[in-house]
Amino acid sequence: MRKLRLALIFVAAVMMLITTTSCDTKTTEPTISAGKMILVPGGTFTMGDTRQVVDEDFNDNELPTHTVTVNPFFIGKYMVTQSEYSKYMPSSEMWVAKLGLGKNYPAYGVSWYAAIKYCNLRSLAEGLNPCYTILGSTNPADWGKVPFWEDSTWDAAICDFGANGYRLPTEAEWEYAARAATNNPDYLYSGSEDINAVAWYFDLDDAGWGSRPVGQKSPNSIGTYDMSGNINEWCWDWYDRSYYESSPQDNPTGPDSGQDRVLRGGNWFGETQVCRVASRISDSPHNKVALNGFRLCRSKID
Q1: Of the candidates 232, 235, 297, 233, which has an alpha carbon nearest to the alpha carbon of residue 271?
Q2: What is the pTM of this model?
Q3: Is the pLDDT of residue 264 over 50?
Q4: CA contacts within 13 A on the Cβ side of 71
Q5: What phi, psi does 247 have (nearest 5°)?
């Protein structure tokens, strides 16, 4: 159901690309501080559908609610922008004005494979210890080209959570940050009960197309923006719809294997349901869907 939904969304986005022209009006964008990270204090919270939203199509994978404890970590104040991404990786052919084009727009059309390569390239460039290992190396130059199809070698990537470099958040870290490190208040969306205050999503009354520059809606109480709506965000974890039934309490990192990787947060073409902090969807790690991007994370190393 979720992969089919993403596939249909992707088709819609491609149809838009066909009609895109290069005559769009340019707008002035505010300056976004590159790489701004927020320290999230470690703690314990209740993960999952704490609001008992009854919708069989969406939240049967959000139960049971369960207690999770995470260590302190840093998370991006914003999603990775097109300006940041293009410093280390080729710009996406999907970046067009109709879907959102500019230095402060989120870097969408990014596969999970490409996201972890970006993390290591940026870590090396900034003198940090890379988190990801493929083929026994942390240097992406040794990994070969980013796969366009499922790839067992890249699927076997190892994450060193003890390294100080950039990485994707775990699903638990992502939800903890989206909830602003608390269940009180137990907001449906990241920072508010009012989705319009914090999220870009598909609204029939204002069905504008495309992503928006990061940081235009209100942040949650720890200062992160766009954790509801705008662009789906990749997490490290393999996706398993029943994972919550057996998830460990301390710093869960997801199943050992799978077919899809977790996506969180919802998107500009998504309904309100998928923008909830508890909502879970997924996609194949090789897919470059126009609605998928990512946010950086770093372990807090004492």
Answers
A1: 232
A2: 0.90
A3: yes
A4: 14
A5: -60, 135
Query: How far apart are alpha carbons 232 and 270 in whole angstroms?
Result: 9
- How many CB atoms are located within 10 Å of the residue 21 CB? 8
pLDDT tens-digit readout, 77-120: 999 999 999 999 999 999 999 999 999 999 999 999 999 999 99
CB atoms within 10 A of CB 27: 8
For residue 297, give the nearest of 85, 77, 45 by alpha carbon: 77
Residue 227: which region, alpha, beta or left (left: phi > 0; alpha: psi -120 to 50)? alpha
Question: How far is the C-alpha of 209 from the C-alpha of 2, rounded, in Å?
Answer: 21
Q: Specify the number of domains making up the chain.
A: 1
Q: What is the mean pLDDT of residues 258-270?
A: 97
Range of the domain at 107: 33-299
Q: Does 24 map to a domain?
A: no
Residue 17 in domain:
no
Does a structural domain hold residue 256? yes
